[in-house]
Write a structure and sequence with these properties.
The protein is of the alpha+beta class. The chain contains 17 helices and six strands. The protein folds into two domains: 3-88, no CATH class; 126-444, no CATH class. The radius of gyration is 27 Å and the shape is globular. The two termini are 29 Å apart.
Length: 445
């Protein structure tokens, strides 16, 4: 039936494919020629290779009918992405749009397709802040206060900017703990839901190495207190710039983990080469210093409290191997170990639940779990950073003396979420979500 149009052996191996069809100059052939030519024109100047490299007579020759439309779409979108990347990288280094573009990772945009739920809710006040931050635009709320004074506790005079950078990094009541605990507890709750052993803020790990008289003395107790002790299998810690991230997990063992948050306007975003040049470089830069900071602190404690010539505190710290850095950034991005933990949690959940939930394979269940966990944590991170700035707006233009007087009288603080030790275990996906995931997967297939 189609032989007169295309020829008897047009689509055999080495066949002439659309040569006869295009030469016929029929209405359908002309439309096909025009569309394919237009698609190829979009690729002029692009280094992205794909099906559109072929002339119209050889259309689809390198793939046949197998996922051809998907391959064409991928080639075009990658070319558009590369063009956008070139335009954004041409902006000044300090431009917030450039900073946002380089910062984001696969967690940063999870709020976009996330369907509303009690767990993944972003309020009407928070949503515009999340959107403008992601796009590198001015804050709809904070820009009205641009130019006004922020009563920062540091000696440096801070003036509010339209993006809210200075507001985010200022020393104000509530500090940075609420945002830190919100992001960290979101991740640790996922780990607990996956069956990972997590000891939150373990204060006992190094106390046996501190003299009892020091521990019983008035004031704070010196020690090393990470955010979590975890029994988990993760790939080797790799924080050096340009070093490839290992994918193979090491045997399960006890690891220390410390969470950090970095806000727009922070020196890491502003001054580090990794933030200015590498994708998600700011969180990677901050992650690279966490283990060093712990080692330096342990060395100071050994100098102060250990016998001369001995390093018991450093030795115990090294026994846990490198401290894992769980860094969350202004744009919802996260460091490598955060992504490693999500991958491990998804694997554990899939291994234990795939049959009970009715998945056809463990791999199918894991695909659902990793997508679900990324969505939960991605929404959690951008929401916490938006709340951090919005909660501080009321301090703009308040005299520092008045703020200090209010704090001395017991007011002016912010209520947190109970800290890491008060975190709730409500991050586990539920079977109904998986069946919705299956239904949409089949509709989109």
């Amino acid at each position: 039936m189609l032989e007169p149009l295309f020829g008897a052996t047009a689509f055999d191996v080495g066949g002439h494919r659309f040569t006869t069809f295009v030469a016929s100059l029929g209405e359908s052939a002309q439309t096909f020629l025009d569309v394919w030519t237009s698609l190829r024109y979009d690729m002029v100047g692009s280094d992205v290779r794909g099906p559109l490299d072929q002339p119209v007579q050889r259309a689809g020759a390198d793939r046949g009918a197998e996922r051809l439309q998907r391959a064409i779409t991928a080639q075009r979108e990658q070319a558009w992405r590369d063009e956008l990347h070139s335009d954004l990288m041409a902006l000044p280094v300090a431009d917030p749009r450039r900073q946002a573009w380089l910062a984001v990772d696969r967690l940063s945009s999870q709020w976009v397709p996330a369907w509303p739920s009690a767990r993944d809710e972003i309020s009407p006040e928070e949503f515009p802040e999340v959107l403008t931050t992601y796009m590198g635009c001015e804050s709809r709320v904070v820009r009205a206060y641009a130019g006004q004074i922020i009563p920062c506790g540091s000696r440096r005079r801070r003036v509010c900017d339209a993006h809210g950078f200075q507001l985010g990094v200022a020393s104000l009541p509530g500090g940075f703990t609420i945002c830190h605990d919100g992001c960290a507890s979101g991740l640790l709750r996922i780990c607990v839901a996956a069956g990972v052993y997590v000891d939150v803020e373990p204060r006992h790990l190094f106390t046996s190495l501190i003299p009892p008289a020091v521990l019983l003395a008035p004031g704070g107790r010196p020690g090393v207190v990470p955010d979590a002790l975890m029994d988990v299998a993760l790939p080797a810690a790799t924080t050096a710039r340009h070093a490839p991230q290992p994918r193979q997990a090491l045997p399960r063992r006890r690891l220390l983990a410390d969470a950090k948050t970095i806000h727009g306007g922070n020196a890491v975003y502003r001054d580090s080469a990794r933030a200015r040049e590498d994708q998600s470089g700011a969180v990677a830069q901050r992650a690279s210093s966490v283990a060093t900071d712990y080692t330096r602190h342990a060395r100071r404690l050994d100098t102060a409290y250990s016998a001369v010539g001995t390093t018991p505190i450093q030795d115990r710290l090294r026994s846990f191997t490198q401290v894992r850095a769980l860094v969350f950034g202004q744009y919802g991005e996260a460091s490598a170990d955060v992504h490693h933990l999500l991958a491990e949690a998804a694997t554990r959940m899939a291994r234990s639940e795939w049959r009970r939930w009715g998945a056809r394979t463990m791999a199918e269940a894991r695909a659902f779990f990793i997508a679900s966990l990324r969505r939960q944590l991605g929404v959690c991170a951008v929401r916490e950073f938006a709340r951090h700035r919005l909660n501080r707006v009321t301090y703009i233009s308040v005299p520092r003396a008045a703020l200090e007087r209010q704090q001395r009288s017991g007011g002016g603080g912010q209520l947190g979420t109970g800290g890491l030790r008060g975190m709730r275990d409500d991050m586990a996906p539920v079977p109904s979500d998986f069946h919705v995931h299956q239904a949409w997967g089949r509709l989109g297939a």
